[in-house]
Amino acid sequence: MPRLSLVIPVYKVQGYLAECLDSVLGQDYTDFEVIAVDDCSPDGSGAILDEYAERDARIHVIHLTENVGLGRARNAGMEKVQGDYVLFLDSDDTLTGGALRAIAERLEAAGDPEILVYDYARSYWDGRVRPNQRAELLQPDGPEAFPLSERPKLLDLLQIVWNKAYRRDFVLRHELTFPPGYYEDAPWTFCSMISAERIAVLNRVCVMYRQRREGGNILKTVSRKHFDVFDQYRRVFDYLDAHPEFAQWRGPLFRKMVDHFLTILDRPDRLPADARAEFFHRASADYRARLPEGFQRPGGGRGHKYALLEKDAYAAMAGATAAVKLRKAVRTRTRTAVNRSKRSAMGVYYQSQLRLPLDENLALFSAYWSRSVSCNPAAIDAELARLAPHVRRVWAVRPDAVDKVPEGVRYVRVGSKEYWAALARAKYLVNNVNFADSVVKREGQIHLQTHHGTPLKTMGLDQRKYPASTDMDFDKLLERCDRWDFSVSSNRFSTAVWERVYPCSYVSLETGYPRNDVLVNGTSDDVRRARAALGLADGARALLYMPTHREYQPGFVPSLDLARLADELGPDVTLLVRGHYFYGGSAHVAELRRSGRIVDVSGHSRVEELYLAADALITDYSSAMFDYAVLDRPVIIYAPDWDIYSAVRGTYFNLLQEAPGAVATSQAELIHLLGSDEYRGPDATARRDAFRRRFCEFDDGRAAERVVRRVFLGETEPLPFVPFAERSHAPAPAQALAAVERA
């Protein structure tokens, strides 16, 4: 039997769950088990648990068939524990390094106490870490183990269960379980602490308590569910009534109850406005019903609130609260007026347009900082024209890019009056990056963030760990992301990353990438047209080379000798190169261009057409690999500087180990791969299949339709996905040519 059992309830934490589990499995102490309870989570959390359980036998997963809430999910986990001690860990929190060993050693040193209380720290989304403000209560002072009566101030610690280890026989003997509803920790914590005869403390931070910017804390949700607190303290005092030997704790627990009631009343993010008076009167009734004989109110302002509660004086309490709010509002309005006077860059015209009604049938699109009509927004635009032609579609385009706008596409020049009017009045704003900081998110306006790739490299808040890769203002970034209503995702892996690195209150749309629909639905004619547009002859082999940007290089420095590569591959192979302009001074490279054996496609607006045309993709760390894999054609990873790139930019997985095909780390290896056909052999094919199943799971050719139906048409029932084994994709060039010849 394990020494320690960790119960981890899981619900809507796919962006944080892996970090939580890794913090447990990476401990240097190994005598433990994990009971992970999937509380019928609607996201990918359950699948993540199953993946971890397959890799580590210490993880046992329970999938509940209905959502029962945090307390009852913990109960379900406790029914399965086998360890001497039960610990609880919330699934977005993490253990610190060495925590379990420190806990086990302290338990042994204290002679197996019934409860061990250990320390925690709050970790914030912006990188701040704040220690427990009552950490001094955990300093060693006196015997190794003691009853609560010897250190009663331990009750002043936050009433939580996940900073304690509980001896399992103690839990069973006292029949401790979690009640349903909010604040379920209160009866468990108070009843267990006063019942334990031997408590020990550990003055070491063992848990990092994540403070999420958005979501993750139901206690910050405005709801009548906060009335559950009355039932929870009824359970506490029912326990006292059933155990007269604990009568000494009535006064301290009464104080904890009243403080808790007042905390809920003081917080503006908990009770609906029309429920505050009702809550106050209910709290007042419980106050008077449970007031211990001889109880002394605290002094100062807190004691004044106790007195108002005892007298059921809601009007006086509300009046005092309103006065405080008024003073804050005056200060806020003053700051707002000053800030508004500084925002002259938005212009008087934009301000005037913001006062006009929204145009319910206008959608404004942008892609890549308004440089082109492309990517996911373009695919959504086309599907919107098919399914909802009543919605007018207009693109924001930079003045220096208007000559590249396809014929028939309506556009406005960025910075023009028409542009600001469209930004102010369009019901729908669609972009694969963020709109400018000066854009105001209006009530009723819908912002659709499509993204433009699956992340291998770190993104968003994760880039804080790699300061050499960015000078981003992360506060400004999150203000831009706060405008999102929907975030499109191509796979569960991306969803988990986006929700963690952009912690804002949007809805994730797991639809697949709209721009990849053509890679699934493309025909032989589409493939031949794409090749013909690039001047590729039938039967010629075309390799698409797409290197990515490197932050540690001031400009484009090709890591391939393209001329040598072309010579080695021979005259039957054409290199399509998409990236920054490469060496232009080489006479040999110029000759290769003229011969058609190197085609610079850096300015091509539709990368999907390049994918259709190419027989194989050569890339390093570009997200192109995730899209091209939809075609089930060979992908070659050329990664000569993986160690530098991964150290400077940071990556989410080891590409050399989890590549979508063959890997080369030098040009000689790359030439060998391409010359030996190893890049399309069985090992490369097996790698690609695993990669596709992980990263192309939603790409079945109907992504754009899913997005349009959900965002523009308001349909909430998603289209079912075509089973992975039954999906088609555009034919490879050789297959497309054969199809034409047969016809």
UniProtKB/TrEMBL annotation:
| SUPFAM superfamilies, sorted | Nucleotide-diphospho-sugar transferases, UDP-Glycosyltransferase/glycogen phosphorylase
Q: Which UniProt keywords apply?
A: Cell membrane, Membrane, Teichoic acid biosynthesis, Transferase
By its UniProt entry, which Gene3D superfamilies does this protein fall under? 3.40.50.11820, 3.40.50.12580, Spore Coat Polysaccharide Biosynthesis Protein SpsA, Chain A (3.90.550.10)
| Membrane topology designation | Peripheral membrane protein
Q: Where is the Glycosyltransferase 2-like domain?
A: 5-112
Q: Which domain of life is it from?
A: Bacteria
Q: What broad class describes the main subcellular location of this protein?
A: membrane
Quote one Gene Ontology molecular function term: transferase activity
Q: Which residues form the signal peptide?
A: none
Q: Where in the cell is it found?
A: Cell membrane
Q: Which Pfam families did the record assign?
A: Glycos_transf_2, Glyphos_transf
Matches recorded under PANTHER family: TEICHOIC ACID GLYCEROL-PHOSPHATE PRIMASE, TEICHOIC ACID GLYCEROL-PHOSPHATE TRANSFERASE
Similarity comment text for this entry: Belongs to the CDP-glycerol glycerophosphotransferase family.
**What is this protein identified as?**
Glycosyl transferase
What organism is the protein native to?
Answer: Streptomyces canarius
